[in-house]
Amino acid sequence: MTTALITGANKGIGFEIARLLGERGITAIVAARDEERGRAAAGRLGLPHVRLDVTDEASVRAAAKQVEEEYGVLDILVNNAGITVWQDDERPSATPLEVFRQVYGTNVFGVVAVTNAMLPLLRRSPAGRIVNMSSELGSLALAVDPDGPFWPHNYVAYNSAKSALNMVTVAYAKELWDTPIKVNAANPGYCATDLNARTGHRTAEQGAAIAVRLATIGPDGPSGAFLQDDGSVPW
Ligand code: NAP
If you average pLDDT over every residue of the chain, what do you get? Predict the structure, then answer.
């Protein structure tokens, strides 16, 4: 049996990742911060669920304990849960510190907390995989191109949190370099989900594909990479 845990899997891209992993015969655990939303989503997919709020350390610890008791091992962790905080004025200088705290709390610190809690279980897997859902908006190289499509999208809290997540990905990949565990960042592209009031031009299923690929890559696959459907995303 191959086990996977996907955070924020009750809707959006995370739901599609759980569905696609489940279709491959993987026991994909739908992790959701709200018990009822998690139960309902898992029920639709015929998959197990666990309550997990990535910003609540007690909830993270309890989820890891539940996975350990029920499965004893975790093969795949997809750190998918993420938020944006919309502002009337998106200028960096108009962004309250509290917005940074909220966004970093989920999109960066949440990933670190869940990864650390699940790592002992991932180490028991013969081929552990960690996938962090990043964004092209976190790419410094794309952000600084005045002629590129990302120049106008200057959301300082969200974008810098995804840049930080990219470095977190690299740092864990390096620590785990001599183990079977691979750690990669995925760019799903701009997908129509609640995160962006469904303005994306891709579907959540399309966004899920790269995460599923990285969650199931073989031993020759990359670690410490930032990938999208057609290859590497520039850092
Ligand atoms: P979404 O539809 O808004 O789903 C976000 C998921 O994260 C929901 O299940 C949400 O749960 C969960 N979540 C939020 N805070 C949480 C917390 N503290 N603990 C546990 N779960 C929490 O957004 P999405 O577009 O699918 O986003 C998924 C990931 O892809 C995010 O990391 C996002 O940054 C990334 N991404 C998205 C796009 C895009 O175009 N959509 C592009 C690039 C990257 P609730 O239902 O309880 O709120």
Answer: 98
